[in-house]
């Protein structure tokens, strides 16, 4: 129901009550209108009864009513018979039904007749005014005119409505009146609620963000979207300025349109704005007093509002994360959800897994804001085609607020951890159990020669060099019986030094060759030069060893392990490479390497070691490439993933807000076009390099 219809409904309801009251008073004071005490016929039915005829006869013979009124009633009887039947036998209801005839003479006559039949002068006036106002109201609305001529300056003074839409004249007059009478006050997020909780607010601009989404290309009406926004205190009201964009919600979302509003009460008047966004919003409010200066841990409260209107909240701890990324102006964060008693609070956000640990990825180095999202989705697709699948992160776009200040677009990201590996999301996914170990490689070995530190690191889940964490155990989360560095150390030693598969097997470690080939080819496709050793994961899966079987080697602890490979932190892909310039966001885009393939840049360190140890693996990349291409992985499919992500950001209105918050020299659309051209040329190059022919598994 639109606001105009609500106004009409209030006016006509009031008119109906006035008519009923007039009927009652008139019935008590006019003997000529009274029907026999034994007759229970309602006034609206009188014309169809013998008693009604008797009353009419009395009027015609000179009763108290007067000749002109009696004549009008008799002449109009047949004309209005249909209107009376539709009145549901309620006095004065025909006046209410005039709403459907808004703006027409018939509507005015129907309201007048309802009061006339009631025999009350007050009823005539009320019915006539209600119908006339309805006609003027609808006529103004249909012509797109200002409704201030219909609505008085204080039309809702006695209304219980907490949110009111008014025309400019009323909006300004309310603002002037309330400011003069009660004064003004600053706008604070705590002045409003969303489903009883504090909404997402950018305090510096006084802007409330309300998420919404379309279904089959159609948004709900404006009032339905904002109806959960209410004053926090009793007795206060929200006045929205009437706005044409209220009838064009989709345009308002895409354009980031501001709806003007004021909050009124005896405590003063506050002005604010409302923006409808097509992305979920996450608001984190710090609850400790310490400043965020580094990676220190803070306490806070986090609220997530999805585009469906669903609100979920939790206490939390959070800290800045990352190595180079921790120095970005737009920082990444790690969030851990907590219950009030301090225990972990597991919540499912945006259809992703139920968990207490989440990552907020700032996309700061990517001028398109879609590279990392695209790369993770491609990784999922190629793994679904593989024999041994290793899932990585999933990401959903959100708009983030820190301490009631807008911080822009982030990627809410699932960490790659034991829970992610146990989800069994993909076909042929490896089985990860509590007996297995997950290692995360954070630095290049050439920059931090930490290989010889493994044997001396028992009891610690991190190995560091010069203050940098080089490699860490991600599962288990603490050192417990059975935890060991052995498989990671031996695999690292094989990759960097020995390149001897037989020696590695004698030491109790096997490598899953298909998994190594998958990661290496993925790095070749995306040109993920920052993930060929650093920013990758090693999954060590325990292999049962039968007692007395001396034909297989074991580690010093008598165990055997199988190594699988996984990936994370995919920000430098599809033509973006690291560039040590803060002014350029540590990133450069280049087409120079799109038709090149360099060992340990386009291939992983461990694939090069595998190929050296097993020359038959030389053709494994070409076979895997043919499998991907025949499985539907193409330049067009990858570009479509990027386009879908970009449209989500653009049509939600968030991309333009991101550019205002974090301006950049390159247009995002230009950055997307460059990325897609790089992808097309990369596919052409790899098709040539691997001799791909559709429908075949060809070698070089």
> Helical residue percent?
25-40%
The count of β-strands is 25
Q: In terms of structural class, how would the helical and strand content be classed? A: alpha+beta
| Number of H/I helices | 20
Mean pLDDT: 81
Instruction: Estimate the global geometry from the Cα principal axes.
Output: elongated
Note the main sheet: 7 strands, mixed, barrel
Strand % is 15-25%
User: What's the Cα radius of gyration?
Assistant: 36 Å
Q: Biggest sheet, strands in spatial order?
A: 9-10-11-12-15-17-16
* End-to-end gap: 67 Å
Runs in which pLDDT lies below 50 for 5 or more consecutive residues are: 1-5, 23-158
What does this structure look like?
The protein is of the alpha+beta class. Helix content is 34%, strand content 20%. Strands 9-10-11-12-15-17-16 form a seven-stranded mixed β-barrel. It has a six-stranded mixed beta sheet with strand order 1-6-7-8-4-3. Strands 19-20-18-22-23-21 form a six-stranded mixed beta sheet. Helix 6 packs antiparallel against helix 7 (121-142) and helix 13 (486-498) packs across helix 16. The radius of gyration is 36 Å and the shape is elongated. 40% of the residues are buried.
